[in-house]
Amino acid sequence: MNCKTALNLISAIFLTASMLACSQDSNLLPNEKGGITFSISETNHNFRHADVGEPKFILLSIKDMEGDYIYNMRKIDLFNMNGQYLTENIELPVADYTVEDFAVLDQDASIIYLTPKSGSEFEDYVSTPLPHSFSITPDNVNNVVLEVLPSDFGGLDKFGYAKFSLQIVKHLKLRPNSSDGKDARVDSWYGDENWGDREDLMIKNWTIDGRLSRTRAYLDFDFTDIPAGATIKKASLSLYHWPENTHSKLSGSNACWINRVTEAWGEGEITWNTQPSFTSVNRISMEASETDNEDYLDIDILPIVNDIVNSPAGSDGIMIQLKQESGYRALYFCSSDYHDPDKRPKLEVIYSY
Questions:
Q1: CA dihedral defined by 120, 123, 125, 126, rounded to 10 degrees?
Q2: 229, 353 in Cβ contact below 8 A?
Q3: In a designed cystine with 34, which of 136, 176, 231, 294 is the match (CB 3.0 to 4.6 A)?
Q4: How many CB atoms lie within 10 A of CB 269?
Q5: Residue 11 · residue 49 · CB < 8 Å
């Protein structure tokens, strides 16, 4: 399967043109008009990109053959008619036209799909880059097919929309492995020991031979793909139970704080005695476990990620600690070194720029 065919399977927008007969005369009249509607078929599951919101609008520019805009970046509502997304009927005089801009927007008016333009980096990814010609003719129904690509394929300039003023939405999924991951636990009992290559991330308070042992977990992710000035819409962290041990609330709640780390650290060097500084500003609360093997899925850490993106020079990931570092209580999660990739820490960030 070639690249163009594969991308055709990703998504498609169908523009259905229906003619309104305005005269019984066989000759064209100057004021004859036709109708065009724009529809999106949700039954084509390849169109819907799982990482973005539901299509709500179309942004459309149309020119006539003289090069004058009939519509210039017109925002048109999409209506969900039993799984079929349909716009209102647009009347146009019987003539030839070109579609100059075509984008699909979500409920926040952020771009989620685009048709690339001729001359852009992505023009060869579709069979019909813009501008694309269509005709309104009497007594005919004209069907025009425009292919679209998810907006997170690349920046707007790569689609040929360098001057587009609306936002583009991207979904960043981070799930590093043992080579790319940066996480470690530190333990007060082993103050000078490094635990950066362990398969577990332990957050624990216990005693060893009657001596207090406090354990914290550090994680960092690569945010360099998020451009400066981006608006973070969602940031969710998922941690998965390490099956070799069980969460414990022997002495009470094992609720935790997630703090932003403000000093550089290395996975292979960090110890309890060399812990980096952190801040409690905008820290996130993790509730106590309800079961002894609970996964913590989609923890909302938006405030911390906002701070990391806005202050990258003073941000080096997160640290998780028990709210009460006393008694006997613990949480056990898998690290990026864990052998099962589906159990490694995951961070998902949706942002626009």
A1: 140
A2: yes
A3: 136
A4: 10
A5: yes
